[in-house]
Design goal:
This protein has about 240 residues and is of the alpha+beta class. Helices cover about 35% and strands about 20% of the residues. α2 packs antiparallel against α7 (about 235-240) and α4 (about 135-145) packs parallel to α6.
Length: about 240
C-alpha cells in the first residue's frame, strides 16, 4: 500500500551491491528503514544524493506495518541545504545530530510534533549565522520536551543538586552518583531558557560546553533505551 509522507534523513548504510538501507524519520510512521537502490545511471529513478544527513524530503512509499524494511516509490527534496553543505561547522553539527537522532528516535506517539520541531531546527541551522557553537545544546535540551523526557526544573533552589537519573532537583544524594555539582546545578536553572533565538547570548568556554554535552548525553542515556556512544562527537569537540 502506497502512502505520501515527509521524511528527515538520518543515515544511509550499504546493504548489498544493489541496495543501501536509509534510516528516515517520517512524519507519519516515525523512524523507518527504506531500501535505497544503488544505481550507476546518470538519471536514477531515486537519486541517492537526496539522502544527505538531515535532508528533508517528500516521499511516496510502500508501507506495511509488520515489515521491517520498506520500499520507496518516489522521493523529492523539499529544500536544498546550501549553507549546511559548504559550512564546515554546520556540516559537523548536521552529522552529529543525524547520529544522535538515529539513537534517540525509536518509537513515539507524537511523530508529527517531533517531526515539525526537527524540521524547523534544520531550517534554523541552514539560515542562522551566529550562536552556532551552542546550536546542538539548544537542540538536545529542547528535543527532550517533545520526546516526553524533559527534566523537572520547577523545584530549583540555589542549594539543591540536579539528579540526572530522576530528572529533578534534590537536597540530598540518593543511592547513585549521577548528579550535577552545585555550580552546574545552578547553571542549569539559567540554561533551561536556551533556545535558537537566544543561544548566541550564552558565552561558554570549550571546557564548559564539553561538560554540558557530557551531562546531556548522560541524561539521554538514562532515559532512552539502548542509547550507545556517538562517534561524531569528537569532531564537534575539536571545533568548539
Amino acid at each position: 500500500m502506497f502512502h505520501k509522507t515527509q521524511g528527515i534523513v538520518l543515515s544511509v548504510t550499504k546493504y548489498n551491491d544493489r541496495f543501501s538501507i536509509a534510516q528516515v524519520f517520517t512524519s507519519d510512521f516515525g523512524r523507518t528503514a527504506y531500501m535505497l537502490p544503488i544505481s550507476k545511471s546518470k538519471k536514477p529513478k531515486i537519486n541517492p544524493a537526496l539522502f544527505f544527513p538531515l535532508s528533508v524530503i517528500d516521499m511516496e512509499v510502500e508501507h506495511f506495518p509488520l515489515r521491517q524494511i520498506h520500499r520507496l516509490k518516489d522521493v523529492q527534496r523539499q529544500f536544498p541545504l546550501y549553507s549546511i553543505n559548504v559550512n564546515v561547522i554546520k556540516l559537523s553539527i548536521a552529522f552529529f545530530l543525524s547520529e544522535f537522532l538515529t539513537k534517540v528516535l525509536q518509537e513515539t506517539n507524537e511523530n508529527k510534533v517531533v517531526f515539525c520541531f526537527i524540521k524547523d531546527s534544520i531550517i534554523t541551522l541552514e539560515e542562522k549565522d551566529r550562536g552556532l557553537a551552542n546550536f546542538h545544546l539548544a537542540f538536545m535540551f529542547n528535543l527532550a520536551q517533545f520526546l516526553g523526557i524533559a527534566p523537572n526544573l520547577d523545584d530549583y533552589n540555589k542549594d539543591s543538586l540536579f539528579d540526572l537519573m530522576n530528572g529533578e532537583y534534590t537536597f540530598e544524594k540518593r543511592t547513585h552518583n549521577h548528579y550535577l555539582n552545585l555550580q552546574q546545578s545552578n547553571f542549569l536553572n539559567v540554561f533551561k531558557k536556551i533556545n535558537f533565538n537566544n543561544m548566541h547570548l550564552y558565552k561558554l568556554s570549550q571546557g564548559d560546553r564539553n561538560v554540558l554535552i557530557n551531562f546531556m548525553l548522560d541524561y539521554y542515556r538514562m532515559h532512552v533505551y539502548d542509547f550507545t556512544e556517538i562517534k561524531s562527537l569528537e569532531v564537534l569537540r575539536e571545533l568548539y
